[in-house]
Design a protein that fits this description.
- The protein is mainly β.
- The protein is built from two helices and 29 strands.
- The strands form eleven sheets. Strands 5, 6, 8, 9 and 10 form a five-stranded antiparallel β-sheet that branches. The protein has a three-stranded antiparallel β-sheet with strand order 1-2-7, with no helix packed on it. A three-stranded mixed β-sheet has the order 11-13-12, with no helix packed on it.
- The protein starts with 10 loop residues before the first strand and ends in a 36-residue tail after the last helix.
Length: about 775
């Protein structure tokens, strides 16, 4: 609380943080300390101070700019602060200080006198300082009687050695490109054209590079136009011309359009000659690995060609006789539309074969297709034909054999049943055992059509035997915006109970029918049910089990927006039904139960009745009502503070015909009997029509409202000082919502409500006269 009024000067004293000499011409800050009292009582709180410097006790000239201190703390009448009148010299001339407190100038200026000075005006820590300033390379040094300029004796002398030059305090290096004596070699020093020779048993040249991001230890480039010049050339009479070890033994690169990274030739016309031999001893290594990093064109990783009539362009042989999954030729591609192995027979006639796979082992595979991708369609084998009467994949088997079988698990049908087509995959998450496509854009084609004539038979039987995960038995998809992924048709007559689609599960936590919609935009209906019969049911859900059986368990895991676990709507404006009708036939049951463990359990909105409950309704948690709440009565009910385990404590609400807000508190008036009450900064924006109540505590003094509410505060006054007063202020709401939604104090019942009661038992009327009686 801030007090206003004139302050009398009770006592001021001046203390200087540092003295200044009479001959000094530059101002220095000094500390000013004062004491403020009002009617003999020291001031406590904050005040606004202004200090002005003059050259006379009265009148005179203002020196420099005034110094202000707003909201400066005053404790028991005492305050202190540093004053710095920049640019004003304190040279022995008259200096007078004028003090202003909360806009009031105190009577009488205070003279500022110089403090006693030492014998020398240039004293430094009590010792004389010479009048001459030090020059470059000098410092102030004590010579026994004063601080005087002298040479800096703390430094050392330096001289430049071989290959160095000293200029002042800077050393420079004499660079040269030849590596001659007494010079430092430059970073571009090279041995281009140099030759080394010897007959030692060790390696002639070794280069090591252990940096993890290095390109190579040695690189050879030829950038000329001659196509026969090698980037790196190695020749040996008996051994290897070039031999490489490491993660990449030898790496060859060519930038020419028709260049060759590595070119190996065997000129002999007989014998098992080899143009290139590559070997690796690592079980995970590659005997030969070729990569083509081009991002366009054919970009062959390996291109092999044979001109022989019965020649083989690529011959892969896995000669190990031990058990294991050896591979003669293996092809892989990382491109999104790449081909691991591409076989093509371009002759237009004859029984040509794009790929021929042949084995003689009874448990071998003529052609084995495998896709190890863990996402995407991940086809193991894809067959395609452009002929209108062709077959993409043709399997022919007689007897009880399998015409086509997609391999991923071994064995036969446990019952020995003959299988026309059995497809199984043990591939990744999106692997497909069988894909059937009917690509005609308009005809009634079938991707898969299965027909049985047995009354106990199954047209299509799909089974997923996985013991964990989603394990879908049947997945159906449609790309049409109005399509149906699964369409079940039971064209029965008017009697009977045919079922279009039936879902059944025997798992305790399973779903007989489960609908999911993964669309990110509304309405995204997971399960839709429609009934066109008058009085029919769009969906009937029954839970016939005992105990805690649930007819409907609706869950929404929406992370934003207005997610609804259940949304019920009556779209006919003339309907007299219920969007949700909940009925319970037990005194201990609840017709409806709402719970939200994180926020609002029930949110009500709209101009008509959206929630009607007959009987006792219990809500556990917070309730937010964004509208007007009407009630017959109200109270709070809490555990009794003195006996919480055994009793409750209840208080009734305070009612008013107005939309009234109440504010109260206690305050003690000051020595003059005044007190200023600060209200919230939004008080006047929210309220109007203020009313006041004051009660004096501890005495029979009179109290009054000295100043009504203005700028969110009001003042009171008591006839005796230092009196405790309990105050209360009320206001009527005037905010935007309140102005549009005033509560009518008296309201006539509508014709439909007349003769009925909200609480008929209070008037001795029967329960049937209650408004909104329970349905039966």
């Amino acid at each position: 609380m801030k007090l206003h009024g004139r302050f009398a000067r009770s006592l001021f004293w001046l203390s200087l943080a540092a003295a200044w000499p009479l001959t000094q011409v530059q101002a220095e800050p000094f500390t000013f300390q004062g004491h403020l009292a009002q009617s003999g009582t020291p001031l406590d709180g904050t005040t606004d101070l202004v200090f002005k410097l003059y050259n006379a006790q009265s009148g005179g000239t203002l020196l420099g700019a005034p110094i202000s201190a707003t909201g400066w703390p005053v404790v028991d009448g005492v305050f202190a602060l540093d004053l710095d009148f920049t640019g004003i010299a304190f040279d022995g001339s008259a200096r007078w200080l004028e003090v202003e407190v909360d806009g009031t100038t105190l009577a009488g200026r205070i003279e500022i006198l110089p403090a006693p000075v030492s014998a020398s005006s240039n004293a430094l820590r009590g010792r004389n300082v010479a009048a001459t300033a030090p020059t470059a390379g000098q410092v102030l040094a004590w010579n026994g009687s004063s601080w005087a300029p002298a040479a800096d004796a703390s430094g050392s002398s330096y001289s430049a050695g071989n290959g160095l030059t000293l200029s002042g305090t800077t050393f420079s290096v004499n660079f040269a490109g030849t590596g001659a004596a007494n010079t430092a070699s430059r970073s571009d020093h090279a041995h281009y054209g140099a030759t080394w020779s010897g007959n030692a048993s060790n390696t002639g040249l070794q280069v090591f590079n252990s940096a993890p991001s290095a390109t190579s230890a040695i690189q050879g480039f030829y950038t000329g136009a001659d196509s026969d010049v090698a980037g790196v050339y190695g020749e040996s009479a008996m051994g290897q011309g070039v031999r490489g070890f490491g993660k990449t033994g030898v790496r060859g690169m060519s930038n020419a359009t028709d260049g060759t990274g590595v070119h190996g030739i065997a000129f002999a016309t007989s014998g098992a000659t080899s143009g290139v031999i590559a070997s690796a001893n690592s079980p995970d290594g590659y005997g030969l690995r070729a990569r083509n990093l081009a991002t366009s064109g054919s970009a062959f990783g390996i291109f092999s060609e044979s001109a022989g009539v019965d020649g083989t362009a690529i011959h892969g042989s896995a000669t190990s006789s031990a058990a294991g999954a050896t591979i003669g030729v293996r092809g892989s591609s990382a491109a999104s539309n790449g081909t691991g192995v591409h076989g093509e027979a371009s002759d237009a006639s004859g029984s040509t074969k794009g790929v021929l796979g042949r084995v003689v082992s009874p448990s071998g595979f003529g052609v084995f297709g495998e896709n190890n991708a863990n996402s995407g369609l991940a086809y193991g084998v894809v067959g395609n034909t452009d002929s209108p009467s062709g077959v993409a994949v043709f399997g022919d088997a007689t007897g009880g054999a399998v015409g086509v079988r997609g391999v991923g698990s071994t064995g036969v049908d446990a019952q020995g049943t003959q299988i026309g087509l059995a497809a199984v995959t043990s591939g990744g998450a999106d692997a497909i055992a069988v894909v059937a496509n009917a690509l005609h854009p308009s005809a009634t084609v079938h991707g898969v059509k299965a027909t049985v004539a047995s009354p106990l038979g199954v047209g299509v039987y799909a089974e997923n035997q996985a013991s964990s995960g989603n394990a879908y038995g049947v997945v159906a998809a449609t790309a049409s915006t109005g399509g149906t992924a699964i369409y079940g048709l039971a064209p029965g007559g008017v009697s009977g109970s045919p079922i279009g689609v039936r879902g059944e599960t025997g798992a305790g936590g399973g779903y007989g029918l489960y609908g999911v919609n993964t669309a990110s935009t509304a309405p995204a209906i997971a399960l839709g049910a429609v009934s066109s019969a008058d009085g029919g049911l769009a969906a009937e859900i029954r839970a016939v089990g005992g105990g805690n059986a649930k007819g409907l368990d609706a869950v929404s895991s929406g992370t934003g927006g207005t997610a609804h676990a259940v949304r019920a709507r009556l779209t006919d404006a003339a309907s007299t039904g219920d969007a949700i009708y909940a009925y319970a036939n037990s005194t201990s049951a609840k017709a409806a139960r709402f719970a939200n463990v994180s926020g609002t359990a029930i949110a009500l909105a709209g101009g008509s009745t959206v929630l009607e409950a007959t009987g006792n309704a219990s809500i556990v948690g917070d309730v937010a009502v964004f509208g007007t709440l009407s009630k017959g009565g109200g109270s709070f009910k809490i555990d009794h503070p003195l006996d919480p385990a055994n009793k409750y404590l209840l208080h009734s609400f305070v009612e008013s015909p107005d939309m009234m807000n109440v504010y109260n508190g206690n305050v003690v008036t000051d020595g003059r009997g005044y007190a200023l009450i600060d209200l919230p900064e939004w008080f006047e924006a929210l309220n109007r029509d203020f009313r006041y109540q004051l009660t004096v505590i501890g005495s029979f003094a009179r109290a009054m409202v000295a100043e009504e509410v203005a700028q969110n505060r009001f003042a009171i006054r008591t006839e005796t000082p230092n009196t405790k007063v309990s105050w209360q202020v009320t206001g009527i709401r005037k905010d935007a919502w309140a102005e549009k939604h005033r509560i009518p104090v008296e309201l006539d019942k509508t014709p439909a409500e007349r003769g009925k009661y909200l609480h008929p038992e209070a008037f001795g009327a029967p329960a049937a006269r209650r408004l909104g009686v329970a349905y039966v």
